[in-house]
Amino acid sequence: MPTKVYVQTRLNGEEVEFLCEPRQSLLEVLRDVLGLTGSKEGCNNGNCGACSVLLDGVLVNSCCVLGVEASGHEVTTIEGIASPDGLHPLQQKFLEHAALQCGICTPGFIVAAKALLDKHPHPTEHQVRYWLAGNLCRCTGYDKIIRAVLDAAQTTEAKV
Amino acid sequence: MAETTTYQVIGTRPIRHDGVDKVTGRAIYGADVQMAGLLHGKVLRSPHAHARIRSIDVSRALALPGVKAVVTSADLPPAEDRTIQLGEGAVNLKYLSNNILAGDKVLYKGHPVAAVAATSPHLAEEALALIHVDYEVLPPVLDVREAMQDSAPLLLENLKTKSLGQETDKVSNVATHTQFKSGDVDKGFQQADVVIEREFTTATVHQGYIEPHNATALWNPDGQLTIWESTQGAFTVQRQLAPVLGISVAQIRVIPAEIGGGFGGKINLYLEPIAAVLSKKTGHPVKVLMNRAEVFESTGPTPGSYIRVKMGATKDGRLAAAQAYMAYEAGGYPGSPIGAGMMCIFTPYDIPNVLIDGFDVVVNKPKTAPYRAPGATNAAFAAETVVDELCEKLGLDPLQFRLRNAATEGTRRPDGPTHPRIGYLETVQAALDSDHYRTPLEGPNVGRGVASGYWFNVGLQSSVSINVNADGSVTLVEGSTDIGGTRASIAMQAAEVLGLKAEEVRPIVADTASVGYNDVTGGSRTTFASGYAAIEAARDVVRQMTERAARIWKVEPPEVTFANGVFHHTNAADQRLTFKEVAAQLGRTGGPVTGRATVAPRGVGGAFATHIVDLHVDPETGKVTILRYTAVQDVGKAIHPSYVEGQMQGGAVQGIGWALNEEYFYSNTGVMANASFLDYRMPTSLDLPMIDTILVEVPNPGHPFGVRGVGEVPIVPPVAAIANAIYKAVGVRLRHSPMSPGRVMAEILAQGK
Amino acid sequence: MAVIWIPSLLQSLTAGEDKVVVSGCTVGEIIDNLEARFPGVKDRLVQGGEIRPHIAVAIDGDVSPEGLEQDVQESSEIHFIPALSGG
Fold first, then answer.
1. What's phi and psi for B8, nearest 5 deg?
2. High-pLDDT (> 90) share of chain B, %
3. For domain C2-82, which CATH number applies: 3.10.20.30, 3.30.450.40, 3.30.1830.10, 3.40.720.10?
4. Is C68 on the interface with B (CB under 8 A)?
């Protein structure tokens, strides 16, 4: 009696297929089935954002999405943020502003911040803080993260 | 090395060497470790806060298909009742072992009782439900003062109060009594014109690192045990693991992965021995992960506490006497940071008469572990609030009062030694001169508070080796896990000595088999001590490279000097060889060059901070909003200023969370009701403004570049600063942390506002 | 010679003296000489040939990891303080 479900989806721009148990979250699938360990488990109940991914461009906590739910959708993870040409401006600015200390929350923040800038290219500080309030950081106090995101917004805007 | 004030690399802000891996999700943290044949472990934990274990029946769990092994404390060797010195603190092996897997008693809800290895984490969890434990439930004690009463339930049958090597006859929950005394406080209080005595309580608080604990173990048939995990100290794990498992250090290799936060909570053993014995029993590697609830309930938060402080000052604003009674909750086994709290409580001040009594008390809560300047935040909350009251009574500005009473070089600390060169006074002056303090704060229900704090920092042991590459770059091998940018701060110190750019030094964090002994990344020691080792290793490289340049020129080494990356011939001014040019010729001049150093440096400099906070209190809900925050700190010499700022900001925000929201809510049966990030409320980006930092640099004479540890002291002042600001805002003084909205409202309503 | 600052909880063994000048070249010698004058003190500080696990020795303010083996200078100040590190 097969225990796993066959799932087909688009992940970071590529078609992928995998098998997973219905009870496995998308986070588990990414990490344990597909080997993409960039998304992190911090709480497993949607309260820390360390597992943030984009599902059809919408920011979600992948610990609260089932692996089978990804079927036929578009998933973007931290592994899909940089391009062969180099780092995304957000990643570059996080490095320049020292916006990470232990780095465990960083993938989630970068995905969340990308979702913000994709939707609101010119955010105010308050908008950035509001949008990122679902991502917990225990090391930085958020100051340098907010500065990095605001700086990246200027850069992305300049690119456009 | 001559003290130069212009540095090439020190003080700049290069991109950290491990940065790209961390912003792309490539960096491997403990839970990311994968290997062939991996089994998954889960731990069964006590549902009761206090109980005797009558029996454990694992038969049904073992019968579940996919379950490969089940372990209990019977799978660990009997633990010796012996205390070992670990460098950063003493550990009783019996308590350590029993905390890893309970023996005959469970002492807190969440205490591990058994563990399972299975082919999937979900199966392992299913198996836990099939283990039957027969408990005799006992009444718990959950408050430090209650635990100190004669009538309290006793946690440990053999625990008698120790007082500097002497033991009382009576079994009790009070593990130790420590005292510091200088002068005569009774006389001092008589001389004082104003005396304030207050009581304070603080709730249990967790370090809150976002990454849960993890450990993967492979116990090979040849007896070699390898552990992969996120830890603050690979060697410290090795040294604890050997006696707990009854094997030798030589059999253990600990490979530290990247670590997602520690703050002191990832030093003690939790999962490693469990993963190890599961691996031994199954013949497979086993990975064990904690979930968030387990992290709250079963790792090591910081103590809840009761503190009574009495301080007296003369009317010209000089402190005459200070007294404290401090009782800290150790959790299920002894070992709270009461000593550290006592060493910090009054230490920013020069007080002629001091008496401090401290008590380490066991209660039915998880065994506490260090949390960033452990014990000092509780202490500063009490003392700095009383200082604020004294200032108010005396009509003195609180920063001016601190200037008047500041400890300086030569001031005797309450625990006995005198301060070396310190920068406390400078932080107070910088706070006074700051734009923040000079900007008037106006409006209803807003208030400004200040507070100071101290942390002594430690040195301990570090080892570094540096290999010169053919292109003149170097590889730096160190053993300090990088929690906050120390690869960069250590590499930069070597680069400065070698005349290289920061990017030309490639630091790696090595495992216990690949680098010399290193104590933990903690205690604000890493940039100081591992940096010191990097400097000495770099000097060793320079010595050897000097000999090679001399060989190339066919002269004696004393005729060769080295400065700014270039070798010069003292007798031929036009001759020069760059570091790179010499590096290209190593094979022809004697072979590879590796510099090395092992250090246990003295000359550790203590750290002081003074914080200023403006906040608003909503008088109808009690909610506190931080409007502006400035952290001023003596940082010695900021090697990489961005990461120093980061420590100050991060510590301040942890303190803000501690002050306003964070606490363990316990039911009266000792069950934590809020073991999730939803209800254990840490600050989010929306709760905070930017955190301004003022770096005061009073170089530590004990380090070649003047480095002083910076990581811990930022968490010491915030709770008191916020309490003082709340008073200015709405006229109520809170003496319990956290000062959450309900408690603020209760005080406001009691005041009739 | 060095000055040992006697922890307050041990002063009942040193007839109330809080500072004692003692001769010796190492911490171990100093403690032995202190014991000769004030019996009972050594057992409070030393166990199994080492400084008790929860006690650190500070020589002129610097915490020494060498315990009883630590060299002591002519005019050193020796303090016994809680042994701990940080987080």
1. -85, -40
2. 95
3. 3.10.20.30
4. no
